[in-house]
Amino acid sequence: MSATIFQLRHAAERRAALRVLALTAASWLGHGSVRAQGSPNAAAPKAGPLRIGFQKGSINLVLAKSLGLLEKRFPAGSVSWIEFPAGPQLLEALAVGSIDFGATGDSPPVFAQAAGKDLFYVGAEPPKPDSSALLVRPDSPLKTLADLKGRRIALQKGSSAHFLLVQAVRRGGLAWGEIQPVYLAPADARAAFERGSVDAWAIWDPYYAAAEIDSPVRVLATSRGLTNNNSFYLASRGLAGNEAALRELFAALTEADRYLQTQRKDAAQRFVQFSGLDPATVQRVLERRPPSPVGPLTAELVREQQQVADAFTQLGLIPKTLQVAEIVWRPGQSLVAQR
């Protein structure tokens, strides 16, 4: 199964934002001449690409790519797209300067911050608690979360599935040391799960939906009641210092979400064509996905993310206590004082 993933409403606001973007884009895209024309492509400097990291489940990014929404807002030829199998790999690329912007679940940024990576939370989507789950085979003897004791459980280390499993183990009255985590990327985890090498698999959509459609599985638990399964957008320091560019990105991603809500059939088909996923899998993914406009992090989201970081610290899975708020971008606030 291949996976090549994926206006401002008021004209006056758009023109103003583009003027700022034209003047400041060189700080993160590179240096070049600015041409004072009316279109986004003419108003920005000749520069290198805005590199977007995405995963199969990054639906707003997938649709934005399919509809060309970023290409309409940024300089011609400046936007490029790079696929990753999971959030940890994406954030490693962001930290070393291979990409400028990307989306992940709740856990990858915590591990990245713990490792001292220079990146920032810049945006978020609403919670999706039904979009990840802990799966077992239909004939598995595991019936409750307490039954996980001593079992081998596949998951991508540092992914949103990691925090789901942490919470599931806690809810089952177990200590983390009473299970056997098996750290595997999604494709390898599915193979191990299907051949019976592991007893359970913690996973997110669309891998979760694909397993439900393609294979006999049973859901031991979803994230609902365990985690909110939040989705975050992260950026390099350079891009996080360019508020005009971030607002253009948020506008494009929110437009992609509106397109999904109003043109569902076409949006679903675009996701099928772009991702290579089965239509039934895509339908399942969309059924459990709420409307997901993109904007800056709220105080509540920062608090929830701090709880994720604290849980990993308490278990010794990251080496130090973190303050999530230290790497959260806030509109109108300079990053000079931040790390």
From TrEMBL:
Q: Which InterPro entries match?
A: ABC_SsuA_sub-bd, Solute-binding_3/MltF_N
User: Which parts of the sequence belong to the Solute-binding protein family 3/N-terminal domain?
Assistant: 49-266
Q: Pfam families from the xrefs?
A: Phosphonate-bd (PF12974)
**SUPFAM superfamilies hit by this protein:** Periplasmic binding protein-like II
NCBIfam families reported for this sequence: PRK11553.1 (NF008588), SsuA_fam (TIGR01728)
> Which family, according to UniProt?
Belongs to the bacterial solute-binding protein SsuA/TauA family.
PANTHER family in the cross-refs: ALIPHATIC SULFONATES-BINDING PROTEIN-RELATED
Entry protein name: Aliphatic sulfonate ABC transporter substrate-binding protein
Say which species the protein is native to: Roseateles violae
Q: What is the lineage of its organism?
A: Bacteria, Pseudomonadati, Pseudomonadota, Betaproteobacteria, Burkholderiales
